[in-house]
Amino acid sequence: MKKSTLKNKTKSTGKPPKTVQKKKTVLSKKKDSKSANQKTVASPVKSLNAFHSANYRRRKKGLPDLSWNEYNKQKVAKDSAGRFHPIKQVAITKAQSIFGKEIFSKKKVCNKCGEKKVLADFSMRFSQKVILNVCKNCEQERQKKYWKQS
Questions:
Q1: DSSP for residue 82
Q2: With bands split at pLDDT 50, 70 and 90, how would you rate the model's confidence at 50?
Q3: Backbone CA torsion sign across 37, 138, 90, 69
Q4: Tens digits of residue pLDDT in 72-108
Q5: CA 120, CA 74: separation in Å to the nearest integer?
Q6: CA 50, CA 13: separation in Å to the nearest integer?
Q7: pTM to 2 decimals?
Q8: d(CA 53, CA 89)
Q9: Which of 27, 53, 112, 120 has the fewest Cβ atoms nearer than 10 Å?
């Protein structure tokens, strides 16, 4: 095509002509090792089964279904009966003895995610009597990313 016809086409449609680029695939020399771009992900079948069975139990009780994100938020550190793991329970009772019962009623904004959460959901330093500004979930994500890098 000539340049003049290209200019005319872009003026009439208002959009430049589409160009298709082919993606290059690079295979590694070793057959056993996975390429650097591929991530090894654990099979989500167990967690999906638990998610579906949790929604089934909720439907039987007459409650609405949970989304995947809501399910993951509620699942953190709790068993099927809604109780905290014993180690988490010890930490909560220790925090209550040091900071008082107000950690369950007062709310604070997380610096990372910006959500308003109860003080019990934030990381604490018991020796210095300090409640940090980042919630436990965001801190867990930060640590996970750090260990994946190295």
A1: S
A2: confident
A3: negative
A4: 777 666 667 777 667 677 888 888 899 888 888 899 9
A5: 15
A6: 52
A7: 0.43
A8: 25
A9: 27
